[in-house]
Amino acid sequence: MAVGGVLVAPARDADAAAADSSVASVASRSFAETAAGIRPTANLSNFQAGNIISDAVFFNSGTIDEAQIQAFLESKVPRCESGYTCLKDWYDTSRTTTADAMCGAYSGGVRERASRIIYRVAQACGINPQVILATLQKEQGLVTHVWPSDWRYTIAMGQGCPDTAACDERYYGFFNQVMGAAWQFKRYGNPPGTSKYFTWYAPGRTWNVRYNPNEGCGSSPVFIQNQATANLYYYTPYQPNAAALRAGYGEGDGCSAYGNRNFYNYFTDWFGSTQRDPVAEIEWEYQAQGGLSGLGAPTSSVATLYQNGGGFGRAYEKGSIYWNYSSGAKTVRVGPLQDYYFARSGADGDMGWPILNQESLNVASGSGVAQLFSGGSLYAGPAGTFIVREPLRGGYFSLNGAAGALGWPTGDQSCASGVCRQSFQSGAVISSSAGVYPLTDPVRAAFDAAGGVSGSWGVPVSGLMALPYFGGGFGQAFANGSAYYRSDGAVYHVSGPIRDRYFAQGGAAGALGFPSGAQQCANASTCQQQFQFGWVLWTSAGGARIGDPAIDAAYAAAGGAGGSLGARTNLFLYYSYNGGGFAEGFANGAIFYKPGVGAAYPVTGSVRDAYFAAGGAAGRYGWPTSAMTCADGTCTQNFEGGRIVVTASGALAVTDPVRAAFDAAGGVSGSWGVPVSGLMALPYFGGGFGQAFANGSAYYRSDGAVYHVSGPIRDRYFAQGGAAGALGFPSGAQQCANASTCQQQFQFGWVLWTSAGGARIGDPAIDAAYAAAGGAGGSLGARTNLFLYYSYNGGGFAEGFANGAIFYKPGVGAAYPVTGSVRDAYFAAGGAAGRYGWPTSAMTCADGTCTQNFEGGAVTASG
To answer: Can you give the pTM of this predicted structure?
Structure first.
């Protein structure tokens, strides 16, 4: 039944009712009764070297107030010996201290009573004043001493007094001792803003703790369970040995040390357990939650709860506080979490005890609240309130809970046939005999589309794994297959004999890479699945093999094993070169296929030999783009990087840009004829390439323009040394005005041909100027067959004649004759290579003086 908001099981018998009454009496018991010794004498068989006192007790500064401390001191020393001042009557002048990471500020005072100093220091530093009292007693016996000397107050807490040296005078005096010890107790925890200095008794680890300052007495390992126990060992670094524990308050043997034993004895005898006090801890939690302004007024007394190991609870207007030994006092606030908890019988139900207080979560997947219980983690989020229990909780937490990839729960778990599942915003967690594994989207979505846990995939048998191969992706194993996805988020399931063959190739890390398509089955006996670097093709008759459907189609079109390619060789490769594609080897050739570019094409015979000699798909030709064709003893096949032509004299390749020009000229049946050489690098005049054909030669340079040189022009060109000679590379196509007149431009001149005069070196502009000057019958006289290219002053051409020369700088003007005394002066100055450069006008003469303009000035001569 519910009592005041706390779900409480009804008392089952008189003993249970008596127990409840006993707990209630703890709350009403006065401090004076406690101090008078109602609690039993300490039982040292309960002493735990690794947990002498709990953090909850050690740091609870609200256990007793100043008046109770004074009453306690008076109860311990009803009468002080004459001539001495006992602790109950001691006064000291305190000093003002500023706040730091350990303690709050303390405002000093004159003649402050010892009980006041103890209380105020406890509040400033967050230390239980009972801890200070027990320490005063175990260090100097001051609490019960009836004739204490003044030196006991000087070093009252033993602060600054090591076992092997004199005390530090900086800590002398009662106030300094109490404040110094409390400050030190907080400093041991390395609070924020301080250095991590105190680490050698750090809680959560096992340390060797000595029995005595004498190293010969030895030590034993102690697992330090909490900071409070670590503090006591920093302060007094010895544990009691068996003899000390047997002796109670008495002496043990020569290796006994008593400081931490006596602290435990005094604290337990005077104040009760060093561990837990349910009523006090519930009250402490109530105050920590804001007291009346936080949880409101109590609506029930402290009630005893019997289920799930037992504990206590108390209801308030705005929530309930529960206490059990394992988790202490925790609050369940009014709201969706409490509604869900109460609907399942609260602490008496299968959710058990709250382990942590409610926490607000503002994460990427939405906002809500969560709280940990012994029976699971409870969430109230965007989709409602749901509990996540073990073993599913382990899988959920492995991905960082609500803040992780799964987001908030969207339902409670459901179980059937030994399999449990719980859904979340972006995934699910599934437990089975194979283990507990989370599923995140997009795998979860594909898993559900395949029928979930009862579908074709079966239950997960691994978590999601990052696979850093071929650009990276993810994979997850299921009972009946494996799921993979990459950056595009598409999920592909690989199963059955196709998966077996895939795994035999190394899975995602092997030759096939990641799956890139779903398994396709034409019928029950034929299936296939695409991967990054190939397909797995399966038939019930032949089993699973690596291949490609496009290559299979081309093989079938070529007649299969009985055709020109012959039998399979079981060699299937993926090439990443030149855009990537597939190749399969056969007895008499291979089939190459570049997806997205065209069909799959066989490459056989001499074409294959030439192709492989150049590196195949990885070489300069790249992938085939057509089938091989043969006519009149010549076979050709096109590739991305060119064409391979096979004639009776062998196989030669024609690559772009020569191939494009070759095709424009009619290909193997066109004007160029078949190639009779491969492409040659020609390292002259800036470099270029050339290739010989039956009816001419093709050349190109860095601009990619291809020029074909043929007939008598080619003969004359070759007579000059070809591309290595005086003319350099062709720079224009052959031009024919008619069948008897042709010309072609080269880097350093032209070849001019007529049927009557044959081919010679010259320049059309110079020929025009020569004709205008009257030709051989004019002022220049006959040709001398001297034709030159000058690179000076921008470059141009010059031709010599019997009585002069004609100079021409392309792009600057016309061709101009230079004759007579002007020529003599021009040549004397270096001609076109000299300071005058190229002529820019014809020569003019008047009154016996001739003048001609040049780039560098006019030349004037008489005669």
So the answer is: 0.55
